[in-house]
């Protein structure tokens, strides 16, 4: 079942001769429970694609479908979540970890006991000790902060999560743990994921399908197993052979 | 011939939270003309080791014990004059973020001219353009007129390489020189660095967190953990048959080696599980949140994570 579909999406900033195309006729889809890796470098349009998929930015032309229906951000907000590169910026520094995790749920329910129970459940899901709930983001390590951001994204039981460079700022061993955490949570909760990264090795580990963007266009779209043989564009070959 | 000899070096930083040991008895040597990579995660002390070669520690840092010798001369014992001479004549640095290290208020041409004039060399437009040609900048005349913010990351890194190599340094320290660059310019920049070093016979010290990347370029790799060099060897040996448990855990965590059903544990966690003194953190810089990493196990789980 197709969960999210971008259909010939073009995003243009500005008009006339100075207009910049962040995305040109981009089409790809994410199935339920599937992880699509989106690879590209700065300026490739991958972050624009993420905000379009989340309904945070309207395409200039083209369509975004969620469950086969045109995406309506307000109605579907709880069903889609995002985890960003820098949890320090994504988390409110003045809120405790527990309050941050609870926030997306609090706007939807008034049952405080239920929210508390759910926060405890989320902390457990991302393997954080219950007492960390009382801490503030600056008291946590980078890996712990990213776990908090994931718990916060997961609390509304979303069906679609965008991870935008979510492990890029982490050290190798911590990155590995977060990747395995995402994998486990996905197996348990079955959300579809758009996993954006510039690191092909990371994407190949996690994704079922790999989409490569360059200059606002999709230059490659292949199953993760076929990446080595299936990538034909010189840029995506360079990505594979990089380092 | 051994050019750099670092022997049991201890470097301490005075911070508002007390003394922090960035290097805790690091020992490493590099031959003249060698390409050596130093690999470690954040907080391992690799950057401190890189700067210690020129005694370029921040004001709150000091050599507590041990020694750094360059060409047999004890860097720690040099006076101001001697240190300046060493840094000027022997050392070149290639930064992680080249745009940030160039002067934002001056055009590229002017910054190159400053370097070249100090050497008493020809600072004509043509000579400067030639410098940029050598680092394979295509439109060199145009780039000379640009300000740093008008350069791409790869171009700025080439300018930084041209500046670093102008003095033909004997030691070239490159601190994550490709971390801020896009994939398709990384290789080109690395090739430039290594070719330039080979031409001038410079020793390259490449600081990196990426064991696989350095293996393709360096004959020898040193792995650092918590202020110590825990393993040194040819990349093939270090990658295929790592001896130290930290190196083993680092390799197991590399995304290309990661296995779905084998949960990764950081070396710090392993130590903590064994009840070793893993709870004593050794941050490389005054990092406020690290001070709490001595909490019970779950809290210290990934303390070497970057912010």
List the helices and strands and how they pair.
The complex is a heterodimer of chains A (243) and B (307).
Chain A (H helix, E strand, L loop, with lengths): L1 E12 L6 E12 L3 E5 L6 H8 L7 E6 L2 E2 L2 H4 L3 E4 L3 H4 L6 H10 L5 H14 L16 H13 L5 E5 L7 H18 L2 E6 L2 H7 L2 E6 L2 E7 L3 H4 L3 H8 L2
Parallel strand pairs in A: 3-8, 3-9, 6-7, 7-8
Antiparallel strand pairs in A: 1-2, 1-4, 4-5, 9-10
Helix pairs in contact in A: 4-5, 4-6, 5-6, 6-7
Chain B lengths: L1 E14 L2 E14 L3 E5 L6 H7 L8 E10 L2 E2 L5 H11 E4 L3 H4 L6 H11 L6 H10 L5 H5 L8 H14 L4 E5 L7 H18 L2 E6 L2 H5 L4 E6 L2 E6 L1 H6 L4 H9 L13 H7 L34
Characterise this structure.
The complex is a heterodimer of chains A (243) and B (307). Chain A is an alpha/beta fold. Chain A has a single domain, classed as 3-Layer(aba) Sandwich (Rossmann fold), CATH 3.40.50.300. Helix content of chain A is 37%, strand content 27%. In chain A, the strands form 2 sheets. In chain A, strands 6-7-8-3-9-10 form a 6-stranded mixed sheet, with helices on both faces. In chain A, strand 9 and strand 10 form a beta hairpin. The longest helix of chain A has 18 residues. Chain A is globular. With 307 residues, chain B is of the alpha/beta class. In chain B, strand 7, helix 8 and strand 8 form a beta-alpha-beta unit. In chain B, helix 7 runs parallel beside helix 8. The longest helix of chain B has 18 residues. Chain B is globular and about 65 Å long. Classes of the chains: A alpha/beta (243), B alpha/beta (307). Chains A and B meet through helix 6, helix 7, helix 8 and helix 10 of A and helix 8 and helix 11 of B.
Question: How many angstroms separate the termini of chain A?
Answer: 36 Å
Sum up the overall morphology of chain B in one term. globular
The rough form of chain A would be described as globular
Order of helices and strands of chain B: EEEHEEHEHHHHHEHEHEEHHH
Biggest protein-protein contact in the assembly: A-B, 40 and 40 residues
Mean pLDDT of chain A: 90
């Amino acid at each position: 079942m197709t969960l999210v579909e971008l259909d010939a999406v073009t995003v243009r900033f500005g008009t006339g001769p100075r207009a910049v195309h962040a995305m040109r006729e981009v089409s790809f889809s994410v199935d339920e429970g599937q992880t699509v890796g989106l690879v590209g470098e700065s300026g490739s349009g991958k972050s624009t694609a993420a905000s379009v998929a989340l309904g945070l930015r309207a395409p200039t032309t083209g369509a975004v479908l969620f469950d086969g229906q045109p995406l309506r951000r307000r109605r579907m907000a709880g069903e889609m979540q995002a985890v960003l590169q820098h949890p320090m910026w994504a988390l409110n520094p003045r809120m405790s970890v527990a309050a941050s995790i609870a926030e997306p749920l609090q706007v939807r329910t008034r049952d405080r006991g239920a929210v508390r129970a759910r926060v405890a459940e989320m902390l457990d899901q991302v393997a954080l000790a219950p007492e960390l709930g009382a801490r503030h983001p600056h008291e946590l390590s980078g890996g712990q902060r990213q776990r908090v951001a994931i718990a916060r994204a997961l609390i509304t039981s979303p069906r679609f999560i965008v991870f935008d460079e979510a492990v890029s700022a982490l050290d190798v061993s911590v990155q590995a743990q977060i990747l395995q955490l995402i994998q486990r949570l996905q197996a348990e909760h079955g959300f579809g994921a758009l996993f954006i990264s510039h690191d092909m090795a990371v994407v190949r580990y996690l994704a079922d399908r790999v989409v490569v963007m360059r200059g606002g266009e999709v230059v490659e779209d292949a199953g993760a197993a076929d990446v080595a043989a299936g990538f034909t564009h010189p840029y995506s070959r360079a990505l594979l052979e990089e380092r | 011939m051994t050019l750099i000899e670092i022997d049991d070096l201890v470097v301490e930083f005075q911070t508002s939270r007390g003394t922090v040991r960035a290097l805790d008895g690091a020992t490493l040597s590099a031959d003249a003309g060698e390409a050596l990579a130093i690999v470690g995660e954040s907080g391992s002390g690799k950057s401190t080791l890189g700067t210690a070669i020129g005694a370029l520690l921040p004001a709150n840092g000091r050599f507590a014990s041990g020694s750094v010798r360059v060409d047999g001369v004890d860097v720690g014992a040099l006076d101001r004059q001697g240190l300046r001479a060493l840094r000027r004549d022997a050392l070149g640095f290639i930064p992680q973020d080249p745009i940030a290290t160039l002067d934002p208020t001056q055009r590229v041409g002017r910054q190159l001219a400053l370097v070249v004039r100090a050497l008493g060399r020809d600072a004509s437009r043509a000579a400067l353009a030639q410098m940029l040609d050598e680092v394979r900048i295509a439109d060199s005349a145009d780039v000379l007129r640009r300000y740093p913010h008008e350069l791409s990351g790869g171009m700025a890194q080439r300018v930084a390489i041209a500046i670093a190599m102008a003095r033909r340094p004997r030691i070239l320290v490159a601190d994550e020189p490709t971390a801020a660059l896009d994939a398709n310019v990384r290789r080109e920049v690395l090739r430039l660095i290594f070719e330039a070093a080979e031409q001038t016979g410079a020793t390259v010290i490449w600081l990196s967190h990426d064991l696989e990347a350095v293996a393709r370029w360096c004959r020898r790799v040193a792995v650092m953990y918590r202020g110590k060099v825990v393993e040194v060897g040819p990349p093939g040996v270090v990658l295929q048959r790592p001896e130290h448990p930290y190196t083993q855990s680092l390799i197991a965590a590399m995304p290309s080696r990661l296995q779905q059903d084998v949960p990764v544990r950081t070396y710090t966690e392993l130590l903590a599980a064994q009840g070793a003194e893993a709870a004593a953190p050794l941050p490389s810089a005054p990092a406020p949140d690290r001070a709490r990493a001595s909490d019970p196990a779950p809290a210290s789980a990934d303390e070497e994570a970057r912010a």
